[in-house]
Specification:
Blueprint: H1 3-10, E1 21-22, E2 24-26, E3 29-31, E4 38-43, E5 48-54, H2 58-73, H3 81-95, H4 98-112, H5 116-137, E6 152-160, E7 163-167, H6 173-186, E8 190-194, H7 201-212, E9 220-222, H8 227-234, E10 241-245, H9 248-259, E11 264-268, E12 274-277, H10 283-295, E13 307-311, H11 315-327, H12 347-362, E14 366-369, E15 388-391, H13 398-401, E16 408-414, H14 417-425, E17 432-436, H15 440-449, E18 454-457, E19 476-477, H16 482-488, E20 490-498, H17 501-509
Parallel strand pairs: 1-5, 7-8, 7-10, 8-9, 10-11, 12-13, 12-17, 13-16, 15-16, 17-18
Antiparallel strand pairs: 2-3, 4-5, 6-20, 11-19, 14-15
Length: 510
């Protein structure tokens, strides 16, 4: 990046002189909530309200589901794959515009507390999901199947499920919305999005971009609101599939709400991902991976590699290097390109992480660095927490077993490969893991032995539109991204054709 480009990045800021007001997007129109109520979105950096948002409820969810059904039955569900691909490419082109990239990044900074460097990096990648699934839409195909009956031709086709309800989280709202939206649209579905009440604005801003791209009315709808709106979407009889990202506890509630209607569900839930460092690893690379896995996005990632398993021989060396690297992390103004770590997204989570830190100390973990509000926090009331490292963590401690969802890493020791596998799998979660080693044979053994939907080797946090992502055990059901995700938004229809006219006529006469 040139100095001119860097200066431009640093000039990004809050474009609003006073708190803006955001409406619901239903059936191609911007409308107030039926109740007329609104709620505030809080800027995590300041701890103060920065926007007012329409508070949709069950009535608004019902309006949105009906609009989505009308759009599905009115043309989108019957549109050709080529037509859907054109619409997705057009959306991708709109998302790729420099002004749109900056606009979405600014709203994510204000709404989630992300630093501008991360927000801009994500925003530059948004269009790639549209482009990938535009191509995948035309690759969705059935099979011809040989059967034991004579004169019979059998094949399958894939049809869209119908109306999809997408309930999205607050940590990376736009990206995780696109993970659901793009495959759903590519498969021919219409969508109702309920963003998290904690950070709804960037998703509403995404809806404006979708509208600008020329997407037909009702194909995409956004209803912001509190938890009752999410519950109404999950239990709505007019919804054919629910796609949810969030905590495991909430995922269970969503699944129960969908069960009465036998609505199919995909869940991307929590994690407690092990970052496993062997003595033969490139330790500098591994330490950078720990920092990225534990502290990027202020640790608010379902894939956070905050459970750091280090082989005895290099434990002290890794701990020292990790502390040195952590001391260099810059906290400050999230709109400053030099800032590495921003605020936690909301006050409840901030205090929950502080409680987790206190509990870890009480259970015997050794606090090495961080654990409190940094002295150089950019504001007095924001949700700022210094990156935190614990040593001497035991597998029985809560910090080793429960998701913290904050910038907290705990180091555990292991001696053998078998012990590392046992520690890695000794959790209810199974979302992701990383292995750091130069031993190719060990790499294959560890990849096969670890219970996780994703295993990174000598890297961390790499995702793309074409590679399936999801968890096992309490980390969820189904997959996002890749052709696996596209299939999750379709139903398989089997077709049998009897080609023997004489035999069929004889049967009728008999």
């Amino acid at each position: 990046m040139t100095s001119g480009e860097l200066a431009q990045e640093q000039r990004l800021s809050n474009p609003y002189d006073s708190p803006p007001r955001f409406q619901l997007f239903i059936g191609g129109s911007w409308v107030d909530a039926a109740s007329g109520r609104t709620f505030s979105s809080i800027d995590p950096t300041t701890g103060h309200a920065w926007a007012e948002v329409a508070e949709g409820g069950p009535e608004d969810i019902d309006r949105a589901v009906r609009a989505a059904r009308t759009a599905f039955e009115g043309g989108w569900g019957q549109a050709t794959a080529a037509d859907r691909a054109v619409a997705l490419r057009r959306l991708g082109d709109t998302l790729a515009r420099p002004d749109v990239i900056e606009r979405l990044a600014v709203h994510e900074v204000l709404d989630t507390g992300k630093v501008v460097r991360e927000a801009m990096g994500l925003a530059r990648a948004f269009s790639s999901w549209c482009y990938y699934f535009a191509g995948a839409a035309q690759a969705l195909q059935g099979d011809t199947i040989p059967v034991p009956m004579k004169d019979t031709f059998t094949y399958t086709v894939r049809r869209p499920v119908g109306v999809v309800g997408a309930i999205t989280p607050w940590n990376s709202p736009i990206l995780l919305t696109l993970w659901k939206l793009c495959p759903a649209l590519a498969a021919g579905n219409t969508v109702v999005i309920k963003p998290s009440e904690v950070a709804p604005v960037s998703t509403i801003e995404l809806a404006k971009v979708i509208d600008e791209s020329g997407m037909p009315p009702g194909v995409v709808n956004v209803v912001s609101g509190q938890r009752e709106a999410g519950a109404a979407l999950a239990s709505h009889p007019g919804v054919d599939k629910i796609a949810f990202t969030g905590s495991t506890a909430t995922g269970r509630s969503v699944m129960r709400a969908a069960a009465d209607n036998l609505t199919r569900v995909s869940l991307e839930l929590g994690g407690k991902s092990p970052n496993i460092i062997f003595a033969d690893a490139d330790l500098g690379l591994a330490v950078n991976g720990i920092v990225s896995g534990a502290f990027a996005a202020t640790g608010q990632m379902c894939t956070a590699g905050s459970r750091v398993l280090v082989q005895d021989d290099v434990y002290d060396e890794v701990l020292e290097a990790l502390m040195e690297r952590t001391r260099s992390i810059v906290m400050g103004d999230p709109f400053d390109w030099a800032t590495d770590v921003g605020a936690l997204t909301w006050g409840t989570q901030y205090h929950k992480v502080l409680d987790d830190i206190t509990k870890a100390q009480a259970q015997g973990a050794r606090l090495m660095i961080g654990g409190a509000r940094p002295g150089n926090a950019p504001t007095a009331d924001g949700y700022h927490l210094a990156p935190t490292i614990f040593a001497d963590v035991g597998q029985e401690m809560d910090i080793a077993r429960q998701e913290v969802f904050g910038p907290v890493a705990g180091l555990l020791r292991f001696r053998t490969e078998q012990e590392a596998v046992a520690l890695a799998n000794d959790t209810e979660y199974g979302l992701a893991a990383a292995v750091w080693t130069r031993d190719l044979a060990r790499t294959h053994r560890m990849v096969n032995a670890i219970d996780a939907g994703t295993v990174w080797v000598n890297c961390y946090r790499r995702v793309t539109a074409s590679v399936p992502f999801g968890g096992v055990k309490a980390s969820g059901l189904g997959r996002e991204n890749g052709l696996d995700a596209l299939r999750d938004y379709t139903e398989t229809k089997s077709v049998w054709i009897d080609t023997n006219e004489e035999a069929r006529d004889a049967f009728r006469l008999a």
